[in-house]
Write a structure and sequence with these properties.
This protein is an all-alpha fold and 345 residues long. The protein is built from 15 helices and no strands. It folds into three domains: 96 residues, no CATH class; 134 residues; 89 residues, no CATH class. The longest helix is centred in the middle third of the chain and has 40 residues. The chain is globular. This is Transmembrane protein 33 homolog.
Length: 345
């Protein structure tokens, strides 16, 4: 009887291990939003654990994912604390038991673990506070009845707040370069350049330094903050009466429609690229900013966390524009080919 009960789970674990995560754009987005230390992110057992959690969430909810055990039993007070908190951070807050420690070391370990957990909680709370503030300010910026001067100030504060949030997230996950020389900085940037936080950091810096007032640019910011707010509320307030009464349905909808929000953000980001080209005809034109933003769009097209969404949007644009160019403006084939070579390079 025990083997019959284990067989379905064994098959599910085999299917989860055989699933091609790299071809699923949701995996890259899911992995980029997990805040774990870099030394844990490079461990294969940690990656496999979160792949099973991803498979349980998006593919097969019946898959049972066990808590990840601590890698080494502790022999003293200090290793016990580090082992317990490391496993806790890697497994979404699940704290493993440590059976091999004495009464004194267990007490010290529990105290150290609670301190580390409180620090981790403070980081999450800080990120939530900044994102909630950005969401309120961004809504204020796009609300039509708000005076233009206040709306413009809220517009810029939205980008500043998001830039601070992404910068803090990058520091919390990747730290800082090991040394302040060219080689170390280059290696550091290679590790963060394709992450979602770095892309949004450059996105915010592009518009916060611009003289253009494009409320359309706040759509990706709103989508990002909604995702982070909903995730935090569901993890930390799911037992609250007020949350269950007023916020549970919106948060569930946001978390179940992250793909829709990412597609909406991709449409807005690409549309902003064309708006910047049109703005070159106005007195507020900025050729350098337009070129840098299209470089950012190129990065979004190739980065794993956003490539799936951006490539689908560009395919739709190509299916619409290419027949028109072939029929009415065949002389544009040469410049379009040159642009495509630059884009795919």
């Amino acid at each position: 009887m025990g083997e019959e009960r284990e067989d379905p789970q064994k098959l599910k674990r085999i299917a989860a291990a055989a699933y091609d995560y790299e071809l699923d754009p949701r995996w890259a987005d899911y992995w980029s939003n997990i805040l774990i230390p870099p030394h844990l992110a490079s461990r294969s057992d940690v990656v496999d654990h979160f792949k099973r959690k991803f498979y349980q969430r998006y593919i097969d909810p019946d898959l049972v994912v066990e808590a990840m055990p601590s890698s080494k039993p502790s022999q003293s007070t200090k290793p016990s604390a580090s082992s317990s908190t490391t496993s806790s951070a890697a497994d979404d807050g699940v704290q493993p038991r440590n059976a091999g420690s004495t009464t004194r070391s267990s007490g010290a370990s529990a105290a150290a673990g609670s301190n580390t957990s409180s620090v981790h909680w403070d980081r999450q709370t800080l990120q939530f506070s900044v994102n909630a503030w950005v969401f309120i300010v961004a809504v204020l910026a796009i609300f039509p009845l708000v005076p233009r001067s206040l709306s413009y100030r809220a517009y810029r504060l939205s980008f500043v707040g998001t830039a601070c949030s992404t910068l803090y997230s990058l520091y919390a996950v990747y730290g800082k370069p090991r040394a302040w020389n060219l080689q170390a900085v280059q290696v550091y940037f290679q590790s963060i350049i394709a992450t979602k936080d770095f892309i949004y950091l450059i996105y915010c810096l592009t518009f916060v330094t611009s003289q253009l007032f494009l409320k359309f640019a706040l759509i990706p910011i709103l989508c990002r903050t909604l995702e982070h707010i909903a995730k935090f509320l569901r993890r930390n307030f799911n037992r609250s009466t007020m949350y269950r009464k007023y916020l549970e349905d919106p948060c569930v909808w946001v978390e179940s429609n992250t793909t829709t929000l990412n597609i909406l953000s991709s449409h807005a980001e690409i549309g902003l690229g064309f708006l910047l080209i049109v703005s070159l005809l106005s007195w507020q034109r900025n050729i350098i900013q337009t070129f840098m933003y299209w470089q950012l769009l190129k990065l979004m097209y190739h980065a794993p966390v956003s490539s799936g969404y951006h490539q689908s949007v560009w395919m739709k644009i190509g299916r619409t524009v290419n027949p028109l160019v072939q029929r009415y403006a065949p002389f544009l084939n040469t410049p379009v080919s040159a642009i495509q070579r630059w884009w795919f390079r």
